[in-house]
Amino acid sequence: MGYNLAxxxxxxxxxxxxxxxxxxxAEEILEEDGYLYCLGDIVHNDExxxxxxxxxxxxxxxxxxxxxxxxxxxxxxxxxxxxxxKVALENNITLIDASCPVVLKLQNRxxxxxxxxxxxLIFGKHGHAEVIGLQGQTxxxxxxxxxxxxxxxxxxxxxxxxxxxxxxxxxxxxxxxSDLLERGYEVKANDTICRQVSNRYxxxxxFVKNFDKxxxxxGKKSSNGKVLxxxxxxxxxxxxxISQPEELNISMFNPSEKVGICGATSTPMWLMQQVKSLLExx
Length: 282
What we know:
Helix content is 41%, strand content 18%.
């Protein structure tokens, strides 16, 4: 007798529009040219990166870019700092710019703030591609922090402008704003979190309550994945984080359980469908 699990994929999970745009653009050029350079992983999901590499996508880093010339290079949804565009111009590189419109708008706002002489703080993950691009708009002068504790021993200006990486938690952003105001700083806060991401918090918290177990599928490098996994775990303690189907084990489940599958904005639907097929085979 099989386990007879009732498995449902969350219809709102999977790629956000920015990632869909970047991947569609890459696949179109791969179809035409047979190969394409991409600056950094096109998405923080190893399985999707491997699928596109098999089609001819070549992942490069910034030092590779400097030694490249007369080629096409894709800029992924995370966006890039001004320096990247400068190198491309010098090396006759054609940039296929798939920067997410939400990220581009944020870069613009940060640049305008910086040009107006404002001191800038960015709530974001150190070293994250999007954050590097944002900091680049300030000539590297913006202060990036992941947690409020990081600011405890830092001498901050009395007045500053606060921005956020687009995939951060809205709750955490407003808590940070409130705490900084309580500490006596004059804070001009800009909630720049992508609503396609933040709306998933409420959707997921409702979705996960309907199941005995939740399988959350995400790349381990995904910032957004960590945030959304925490949302799932908060509302359904029986939530497992996996990056690929092989990480599942039949011992995690009981016969006839209802299992929900969801994922990050960087998780491909085909991967969640593979997870569903495996669970239904038990």
